[in-house]
Structures are given as C-alpha cells and as structure tokens.
Amino acid sequence: MSRENQELAITSAAGSTTTKVHLLRHGEVDNPRGVLYGRLPNYHLSERGQAMAERLAQVLADRDITVLVTSPLERAVETGAPIAKALDLQPDVDDELIEAANVFEGLPFGVGDGSLRRPRHWRYLRNPFRPSWGEPYVEIAARMRSAMDRARQAAAGHEALLVSHQLPIWTLRSAIEGRRLWHDPRKRECALASLTTFTYRDDAVVSLAYSEPAADLAPDAGQQTFPAGA
Fold first, then answer.
1. Do you know which SUPFAM superfamilies this protein is assigned to (predicted)?
2. Is 135 assigned a catalytic role?
3. Is 99 labeled as catalytic in the residue annotation?
4. Which of 3, 93, 119, 224 sits at a 20 to 30 Å CA gap from 133?
C-alpha cells in the first residue's frame, strides 16, 4: 500500500479529518500621529511591518496552507501578500475579518492625550462590558467564527490562514475558550504578526497554540490601550 493510501486508510479508520486554522494579526502600521485607526482607510504597513510580513512568509512557506483569506483593510492585505507569493496562493478577502468598529477612530488614544478628559466622549464609556464605544463583543465573536468556519471547511484536511486584527482575534479566542469577552486590552495575547492556531478534528477545536515568529522585529513601544484595537 502506498503512503498516500495508508494515510487515507488511517483517516477513514479514525473517521475524522484534522484541519488547522491560523489567525494572523497584521504587522506594524505606519501611524505617525498615533491615532486609533480602526477601520479607516489608507493605513499601511510600516517598513518594520513589511519586514514582519516577509518573516511570516519564510516561516509559513512549507506549511500545508491551501486557503488564505484577509481582512479588507490595507494592513491585512499587505501582510498577506508575501505569504500568498511564498505559498503560490490567490488570497481572498472576507469582510467579516475586519477590525472592530469604534467611535474613537481617528483620535489619539494613549495615556495623557486628553481623549478621555473630553466630556463629549464620556457617554461612550458607560458600558465596558458590551462595549458602549463600539461593536459588541458578541457580534465580533460571531462574525469571526463564521469566517473561520468557512475557511476551515474550504481547507478541510489541510491548513487555512486568516489575516485579521488584534481585538477580533482575541475576542474569538476568548469565546472559543469559554472566557468572558470583556477584558483588559493590555492583557491580550496577540502581538503584532503573531499566530493563534486552532486545530480541529472535524468541526471541533481540539487544541490551540500561540506563537510570535517575528517577535525580534517588534517595536519597543507598548501597544495601544483601552479601548483601542488594531
């Protein structure tokens, strides 16, 4: 019996199919004004972000990835481009992988910038559990799960790579792991150019792994804080 037939026999005997879905956060963005860019157009990868994307292309070149899907935002598409070239794949775009909507888009949102001291903003901070400043966590988790399920089905028996954003990836992971969806953004395990990998047996998640292939390229500055996502 050939190796291929042996593998098919093993799969048939087990009665299940193993599929991996990698959720990749995009690389660093060129953001000299330090704003919360959210879904705003024309925010592209920085030089360091491009280097992160090239690193990921090297790391993933030998993986059995048959499906590559990105968020429609430029930084996600640009992160996926060198990976698609390395894998000889035509990437697709899925709107459900997009960054979370946020009323603070276009504003600086770091410590000491004054955004939260403006009374007109206070009404958006009344409910951090939903959250009141943007897209509800439950809706983020639902659309991300929908996108991941489509990719998993398309890549059945192989691997899929989805390029998205920090908050959507972390929200989906929290939902799958059974944690509450509201959280401290400073404690998200989802660095720039990181991979959150779900292994499925048929349609059930059986394991989760996290890695940072471009950790040595990461900027020294901390990530944006509450309520930002990227």
1. Phosphoglycerate mutase-like
2. no
3. yes
4. 93
